[in-house]
UniProtKB/TrEMBL annotation:
GO annotation, cellular component aspect: cytoplasm
Co-factor requirement: Mg(2+)
PANTHER family: NUCLEOSIDE DIPHOSPHATE KINASE
Name of the protein described by the UniProt record: Nucleoside diphosphate kinase
Record-linked SMART domains: NDK (SM00562)
Catalyses which reaction(s): a 2'-deoxyribonucleoside 5'-diphosphate + ATP = a 2'-deoxyribonucleoside 5'-triphosphate + ADP; a ribonucleoside 5'-diphosphate + ATP = a ribonucleoside 5'-triphosphate + ADP
Length: 156
């Protein structure tokens, strides 16, 4: 099964949305494989948002990501990266469709509730950035045959 990174940004923690957002992934049928609270620092954000380092708003998004602790989650399931990304909605919450996390819980481009990995390759890199190997858990779930068909389980 594929794994992806979700970061509940400081805004989600402070606004008390963490449980509701995590609950969406659980109800969808994704499995939580790792979960922890941490404070992000300058160095990890320089790495994580390296693709934005030349943007004028770069210092502002780093400050926003350090304003309070975040909750990092490793979410697992068949095609988890694209499923979670669809559930996230586009960057600007005002444009994100209703029914997505950003569409339902935000009004801002910057303060957009969650980060989610945008490709399987980036998911692998980002999970390694935020989790140690022994912080990600592989475990059987007896509900799996009710979530997936047998062929989906063997392909996943
Ligand atoms: P996404 O998080 O949707 O994958 P990006 O990787 O492009 O988007 O951007 C990372 C984060 O930087 C966004 O989630 C958002 O918080 C912030 N951001 C991106 N573009 C802007 C912008 N034009 N103005 C303010 N903040 C932005």
């Amino acid at each position: 099964m594929e794994r992806t990174l979700v970061i509940l940004k400081p805004g989600a923690v402070i606004r008390g949305l963490a449980g509701e957002v995590i609950s969406r992934f659980e109800k969808k049928g994704l499995q939580i494989a790792g979960l922890k609270m941490m404070r992000l620092d300058d160095a990890v954000l320089d790495e994580h948002y390296a693709h934005l380092k030349d943007k004028p708003f770069f210092p502002r998004i780093k400050a926003s990501m350090m304003a309070a602790p975040v909750i990092v989650c490793c979410v697992e399931g068949l095609d988890a990266v694209s499923v979670v990304r669809e559930m996230t909605g586009c960057t600007n919450c005002r444009k994100a469709p209703v029914g997505t996390i950003r569409g339902d819980f935000g009004m801002s481009m910057q303060e957009n509730v969650v980060h989610t990995s945008d490709s399987p390759e980036n998911a692998v890199t980002e999970l390694a950035r935020f989790f140690k190997e022994d912080e990600i858990f592989t475990y059987d779930n007896p509900l799996k045959p009710f979530r997936y068909s047998s062929d989906e389980m063997s392909n996943g």
